[in-house]
Amino acid sequence: MSSKIRDLAADPFTDPDQRLADVAFEKLEEMIVMRILPPNTMVSEQQLAAELNMGRTPIREALQRLRQIGFVEMQPRRGTMVCGTDIHQQLELLEVRRPLEELVVSCAAERATPEERELLQDLSKGIVRAAAAGDTTDYLRYNRLIHESEVRAAHNSMLSQIMAANHAQSRRFWYQHIQQNRAFEEGAKCHSTVLEQIIAGDAERARLAVKLLMEFLEGLTLSTLNKYSSGTGKGS
């Protein structure tokens, strides 16, 4: 990774200005996405506070935010349970994401600064390398950085808030299922094409490229659904 990408992917504890609740949220989100905390796991504020070496108040706030995006659910007298993923919900999510992604990339193509375009170029190369290596974890980290950087380059604070939860849910789904679909290289190619058009400042071509990306993701989701329907897929 380049130094700029390493800065983006750095441990959030290195940012002194970041609120502890935000740190806890990012840590717990990644633990759930990466299945360190797998579906149906019961967790407690005390347990998580000890593991992340922080107080229970930021953990409590982080869990509330995770509940709002469907990552956990609160169960009376039992605690907090990590929710599973849902293929049908993923299809609904893609339906919502499609027009929003088009808006993000078109705004980014028109508004990105030279520094932001340079970073997007580095990220494009990085996700292609991760795909070629078959590295699921690295691929999804680049995926997260790409989406965050595209939204940042769009310079629209409302889009930033809306897209964060959508992208987190999608990353979680793909971490579970992408190994089954062997689609790293095709996904990286789609992302790279979108990034090329943003970097070039071509809003219309960026919009067309992200349409192809969303069609690819929808096809991947339907393929996963078919595998589960035929009994060949793994449960959540």
TrEMBL record:
Secretion signal, residue range per the UniProt entry: none
Sorted UniProt keywords: DNA-binding, Transcription, Transcription regulation
Domain HTH gntR-type: 18-85
Molecular function via GO: DNA binding; DNA-binding transcription factor activity
One Pfam family in the UniProt entry: FCD
InterPro entries assigned to the protein according to its UniProt record, in alphabetical order: GntR_C (IPR011711), TF_FadR/GntR_C (IPR008920), Tscrpt_reg_HTH_GntR (IPR000524), WH-like_DNA-bd_sf (IPR036388), WH_DNA-bd_sf (IPR036390)
Keyword DNA-binding part of the UniProt annotation: yes
PANTHER family: TRANSCRIPTIONAL REGULATOR, GNTR FAMILY, UXU OPERON TRANSCRIPTIONAL REGULATOR
Official protein name in the record: HTH gntR-type domain-containing protein
Species, as recorded: Pantoea rwandensis
Lineage start: Bacteria, Pseudomonadati, Pseudomonadota, Gammaproteobacteria, Enterobacterales
